[in-house]
Amino acid sequence: MKGRFLRRMSQVSLMVLVVLAGAVGGLRSGSTGTLTKVTIGHSNIRNEIAALWVPERQGIFRKYGLDAEIVLVEGGRLMIQAIVSGTVPSGFTGATTVASAVAGGADAVMILGITNQLSYDIWAKPEIKSPQDFKGKSLAISSFGSSSHLATFLLLKHFGIDPVRDRVTLLTLGNETQRAQALLAGRIDGTLIDHSVAGRLQEGKYSFLGDMGQLGVPFINNALVSTRSYVRQNPQIAEAIVKSILEANAFILNPANKEMVTKILTRYLRLDVKKAEEAYKDLLPKVEKKPYPNMTATTATLEFLSATNPKVKEVRAEQLIDVSILRRLDQEGFIDHLYR
């Protein structure tokens, strides 16, 4: 089982190679003065990636001895492939991809829960006025088994829609920006995307059908993920990454830093000032002082995936999470000190 999964990992597509071409120099551990080079990935572009952008721009990674290079690896599946193969030792991706990887025999684990809540907005064509109108329609997700797939499943379930009975077609169209473009072009009837990247949909006549965060469903859309072997072999690097993100969260949550955080969101999300301010407001409720991965959400993820992947039934939620670094820092008072 493990061999089959690792063979798939070795067949990383050209897309990964192209995305990471400019990051190859940071893939080998090395030093720049007293700094250790490390590459950290993220599989989507939304406001909560500020947990990586802020420490990069504010020198927090360097404070903890890291020469960090932040790279985009499009899509959760490619991100988990890069993590498992060691091409990108750690990165942000969802619980669904971690669960699928572990079920396939790979070494993958969530260290921090970056986003422990549903943070998708429901968008549709102008003529669709309610999620009930999705019956017989097409909805876009990033890929099967992805966070957006699970979120769409939860949406349909909440409104009593059975994808088979009610003839709902799920189309795999890539990240949130690509899905928004597909909706703008009329190629799909609806999709779920984060508020911070809704952009042109908010300016047009498209139907905003609600914020899934209001459903109160535990959900890990982004977690800091690595492998147990990497954490074990590189404990100082892993701890430095965790410390950097924890300090970045404190920076983001400090009202005195609103202007700087907004500027960072403007830069990376390519937003005008007004949209960046909205993205900042949308970000604050997502950021947790003590970002432990949500166990309830992890269990729900396994239940969802096991319906189509029998191997997932053999995986326990505890296998997907290692909060030893976070717990120790918490017990030592490191996190509380950041907020004094």
TrEMBL record:
Which PANTHER family does the annotation name? Answer: ALIPHATIC SULFONATES-BINDING PROTEIN-RELATED (PTHR30024), TAURINE-BINDING PERIPLASMIC PROTEIN (PTHR30024:SF47)
A Pfam family in this protein?
NMT1
**Protein name per Swiss-Prot or TrEMBL:** ABC transporter substrate-binding protein
Q: Which domain of life is it from?
A: Bacteria
- Report the sequence similarity comment from the record: Belongs to the bacterial solute-binding protein SsuA/TauA family.
Subcellular location(s) of the protein = Periplasm
Q: Where is the SsuA/THI5-like domain?
A: 48-254
Organism whose genome encodes this protein: Tectimicrobiota bacterium
Q: Has the keyword Acyltransferase been applied to this entry?
A: no
* UniProt key word Signal: yes
Ordered alphabetically, the record's keywords are: Signal
**Got a GO cellular component term for this one?**
periplasmic space
| InterPro entries per the UniProt record, alphabetical | SsuA/THI5
- Gene Ontology BP term (one): alkanesulfonate transmembrane transport
